[in-house]
Design goal:
With 331 residues, the chain is α/β, with parallel strands linked by helices. The chain contains eleven helices and 14 strands. Helix 1 crosses helix 3 and helix 5 crosses helix 9.
Length: 331
């Protein structure tokens, strides 16, 4: 028999002064309660209760066991209450794994979350490869691009496109490429945290004639977005990064987007966690907040302009098939 259930039956018999009263409160048959107490006595090899037709009383061994059972059952109740509280109210440590570029866009959500739920401490760890969430004790990951682990629950948060840009100084010296294949003659700063092939050296574009993949190389490769952005700003070469990471530089003119007729690859930003059932409140509320805030980010401002340019150009030329290129740009 279940030892905890047997302990509970024993305690109720003692507190209510009889088997019948204990059975009624526990909503069990008399024989079941009797069986629980008997199984304890057989396990312990000691009589716990003195029984008469009118009453029960504790033996010396029974009294000592009763006191320990009350303590154990109280601790079990406290443990269950603590877990239920965690499920209902966010508290404790929230361990989040991200790719290196994510902290920049998730930091405002963490600041807001800390105000809303001050009893939660967020531990944010950025790594080049996603960690094993279960093995290394992480509650969730927020990750760019697809992750192959099918055992994880995935919640889509946003989508973004990459953009090709360089400083005006670099462009004035080296000129602007007219086609992605022209990048072979340019210095390309490789961001290898991005979801590209061959360590970030495969840059993929979608143009009027379909998908294009080009192999690039350059004098700097890094998984640190600040490093490659600084290199581009100093005139070192082209970078190919998520648009939102260089939005301010594009607005100020410090960086200039090129090949605007060729859209970068669309990539998903996802929250991933081990199990959907009994999701802790700290995970559920954090993911909900990040999802809400990510919907406010202008992830893809440049590609939207490109779609409009293509659409109106195609409408102006009746000889072209407008629908197909427009659909490809939206994919």
């Amino acid at each position: 028999m279940d030892r905890v259930s047997s302990m509970l039956s024993f305690v109720k018999v003692v507190e209510l002064g009889g088997f019948a009263s204990a059975a009624r409160q526990l909503n069990l048959a008399n024989s079941v309660v009797t069986g629980h107490v008997k199984s304890l006595e057989e396990r312990l090899g000691a009589r716990l209760l003195n029984r008469t037709t009118r009453s029960v009383s504790l033996t010396e061994a029974g009294r000592a066991y009763y006191e320990r059972c009350v303590q154990i059952l109280s601790e079990i109740e406290d443990a269950e209450e603590a877990v239920q509280t965690l499920q209902l109210k966010p508290r404790g440590i929230l361990r989040v794994n991200t790719s290196p570029a994510v902290p920049l866009v998730i930091a405002p959500s963490i600041a807001e979350y800390s105000v809303l739920y001050p009893e939660v401490t967020v531990h944010l760890t950025a790594t080049s490869r996603m960690l094993d969430l279960v093995e290394q004790g992480f509650d969730l990951a927020v990750w760019y691009a697809s992750v192959s682990d099918s055992s994880l629950i995935r919640r889509h948060l946003a989508s973004y496109r990459t953009i090709l840009c360089a400083s005006p100084n670099y462009l004035s010296k080296r000129g602007q490429p007219k086609h992605p294949t022209d990048l072979a003659g340019h210095n390309c700063i490789v961001y290898y945290d991005a979801p590209f092939g061959k360590g970030g050296r495969e840059w993929m574009f979608s143009g009027p004639d379909g998908e294009i993949t080009v192999q690039v190389s350059g004098t700097l490769e890094s998984n640190n977005v600040d490093a490659i952005r600084a290199a581009a700003l100093s005139g070192q070469g082209f970078i190919y990064v998520p648009t939102h990471l260089v939005l301010e530089e594009l607005k100020s003119g410090a960086l200039v987007s090129v090949l605007r007729d060729f859209l970068g690859r669309e990539v998903s930003v996802d929250a991933l966690y081990p199990n959907r059932q009994h999701l802790p409140a700290k995970v559920r509320t954090f993911v909900d907040l990040v999802a809400k805030n990510f919907r406010q980010i202008d992830w893809d401002p440049c590609s939207r302009d490109v779609k409009a340019v293509r659409y109106f150009a195609q409408r102006a030329d009746p000889g072209q098939e407008a629908a197909q290129p427009l659909r490809r740009a939206a994919d």
